Amino acid sequence: MKIISVVITIIFLSIAGPSNASQELLLITDPFPPYNYEKDGKPYGIQYELVAATLKKMNRSFQIKFVPWKRALLNAKNKVSDAIPGVLKSDDREQWLIFPEEPIMITKVVIFYRKEEDFQYKDLSSLAGKRVGTVKGYHYGKDFDQSTLFIRDEVSSLKQNFQKLLAGRIDLVASFRPVGLHTLYKLDLSDKFSYSPTPVHQAEMYMAFTKKPGNDLLAAEFSRVLKEIKKNRFFMNSLRKKYIPTHAQ
Known about the structure:
Blueprint: H1 2-15, E1 25-29, E2 37-39, E3 42-44, H2 46-57, E4 62-66, H3 69-77, E5 83-88, E6 97-98, E7 105-114, E8 131-135, H4 142-146, E9 151-155, H5 158-166, E10 172-176, H6 177-186, E11 193-210, H7 215-230, H8 233-243
Parallel strand pairs: 1-4, 8-9, 8-10
Antiparallel strand pairs: 2-3, 5-11, 6-11, 7-10, 7-11
């Protein structure tokens, strides 16, 4: 009977399909150049390449899809995806996402302004009475997010914010510094805007995993391998030079 039981177990495992370790991971995030984006049907970005290198070393295959940010968050919350690259940690998100110990990278949120106005950000009081452009679903730091000193003008993309700033419909734009500079370059508006060097917030960006069975262990392994990869200074410097302008690093 024992032999029969073993045979039955083997047959069951063979028809149950591949183990979780061999299943392709689905990553869903938003286009957020130069961190994660798609060009000619192929994924690019400094964060994308870090994530790809980490998963390759873990021997995990994956595919990545790009959708609007709010939809990416919803897909993660509903466990449609396995992970969401380039997400900031918050109390709310920790309820339905698993954050590895190691962030993908650290970036800064700054305030962009029209060059002729020479605005300088010192602290949140600098924004008093201003209309500040933000993107729906993005976090800019707890203090900024909860402040009532200024008016938030939320839209679906950073491009819209800069177009409204150019037209004088808002006073300022909050953005992650490299993302803002990259967007202005693509819009051919780099000569129209500048940013205040004092950051609103210094943000850690993560590859957060959805709360599927086993993803807590996957997150821990991802963190361990990512730390190893980031010790390779040549690799890290080459990624920065490839994707982030020198003055934005």
